[in-house]
Input
Amino acid sequence: MQIDPQNTTNIPNLDINEWYQSPLGQYLFEDLKSMMEPVLATSFGYYSLQIGCTDHSSLLLDSCRVKHHFDLGGVNADIDVQAHASLLPIANDSVDLIVLMHHLSNTEEPHAVLREASRVLIQEGKLIIIDFNPLSLWGVRHFLQSWLEHAPWSGHYYTARRLKDWMNLLGFDQQKHYRVGYVLPIQHLSVTRHLTWLEKGLKSWVKFSAALNVLVYSKNISPMTPVRHHWVTRKLLPGKIARPGGLSRQER
Output
């Protein structure tokens, strides 16, 4: 299946897949994978879809119980489906699980992406958003180096509260909010290993400062049913009208 869109909406020069192959990326990915295992082990269904960072989906979703998995990417990507996440070639209410990994921060139309995810997910389907946390040392470095236009410092970091507001408007319920990775945003792991005490301190005392926010949502759109008060009686048709009396059959 392939769609060749005329306009691309992704921010250029991003290569998050290659960044996750760096020492720091691998270190962070291992933390993410270990945290995701119990979440995915309780995810069941027929179809799952990962959007963003698809080179690592086979490793990330290794413990997932969903039977069939598909990766979605842009044009010329080595994935299962080529399409824009804002124009999914997928039927309504047909997907059990969607993983958005670093995609919302790397697209110019996050609202459209979330609307499409809501459209294709089944009732009670699960949506997992994985992205960098702006309220962290990673967010500070992103603020200083976003002009570099390469992963992981480019794009837009959204706070968990802002994402929650968007999801509430779409009728999603937040199930979990995990915080992953208290490693410092530097590539020299030899330095990082000597600062494990700092990581432990951040995890214990400044929990909101993790590198990644992992937000788990459930699609729970219930039809609105009007509530009728018992003391209010409404009649759709007028009551019976009595025939005029006192007239004979001949007079009528």
Notes: DSSP finds eight helices and seven strands in the chain. The first strand starts at residue 47 and ends at 51. Strands lie at 47-51, 68-73, 81-82, 95-101, 121-132, 172-180, 212-219.
